[in-house]
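Q: what does this look like with NAP bound?
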Amino acid sequence: MKAAVVTTFSDPPHYQDHPEPQATGEHELVVDVLAAGLHPRVRMQAEGSHYSSTDELPLVPGIDGVGRGPDGRLWYFLSLGATLGSMAERTLIDTRRSVVLPRHADPVTVAATLNCAIASWLALNRRITFEKGQNVMVIGATGGTGRMAVQVARLFGADQVIAVGRDAERLDAIPGADATALLSDPESIGRAGAEVDVVLDFVWGAPAAAAMTALVTGRSDPTRPLTWVELGSMAGPQASIPSAALRSSRLQIIGSGQGSLTTADMAAEVPAVAAEIVRGTFAVDATEVALQHVEQTWTRPADSSTRIVFTPGA
Ligand SMILES: NC(=O)c1ccc[n+]([C@@H]2O[C@H](COP(=O)([O-])OP(=O)(O)OC[C@H]3O[C@@H](n4cnc5c(N)ncnc54)[C@H](OP(=O)(O)O)[C@@H]3O)[C@@H](O)[C@H]2O)c1
């Protein structure tokens, strides 16, 4: 079969022949892959730079996707292991970490949305106890996961949702946001976030540290708990947090991702997230690209306004 194959971490994947997957275990199934999203996490996997990366090569990238099983059923799946991902004509899935989708589900929409939506869904549902009526700030709100986080917070009954990012025009276009603030203007973040209860941060690095200081300084009531959930690191893997931020307010910093969440946590929430996607709850922007164009697509500058979805069968 054909697949996107990484043979060295310094090069993009090549479209080439790869051995067919074989199902051997009780819960394993070989599916024809219909759609696989090019998420930032997949780029890290292909570069060997994600914190969960091993140095095993060659590898087929892709952490999730939508495929059709031998009986015609449509599955959304979380990929298995480190070396056989979803960017192939066929892949191996474990039905315990997959969900059957309705026949009418659009594979590209599901592949573009699920990874993005489940990030904040798990954070709010599994890493903290989110209560209806709380106020949420999303940092990195113009990206795929950020736009979805705004919509997920709204779905979970947030009162105010504040979208923070680099581009004012794109922030204004985010569905479900009540207010916006620019990352380059920490004072406006402090003003907008005076009554925020939960921050979902996809950016980290220096901008997050500046935003954290501004938020803590701008609290209307410093005893009001503020939970900062670290989800991504688009602006850098490290952030310098002033000790005063932790002492002068009820700030708690936690993370949400692979490791702090188990595969079982993720698998348990997938059906509910998939149901909302199929119901049309979330607005999503996806760009479909045939898998044979993987190499050229990979080397183009990443565009956070749309999610590329590879379609191996196209
Ligand atoms: N923990 C989890 O469960 C989980 C799940 C999925 C993803 N993630 C992580 O979340 C992060 C975002 O993923 P995504 O899918 O939203 O990516 P994306 O669609 O590419 O969006 C990236 C976002 O980060 C912003 N950004 C990029 N570089 C920046 C910088 N130097 N300073 C400030 N902002 C910057 C972008 O702003 P512009 O729009 O202005 O470019 C955009 O808002 C990644 O680190 C990813 O690995 C975590």
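Residues 39-41, 115-116, 119, 140, 142-146, 165-167, 183, 202-203, 207, 231-235, 256-257, 302, 304 surround NAP (CB under 6 Å). The chain is about 30% helix and 25% strand.
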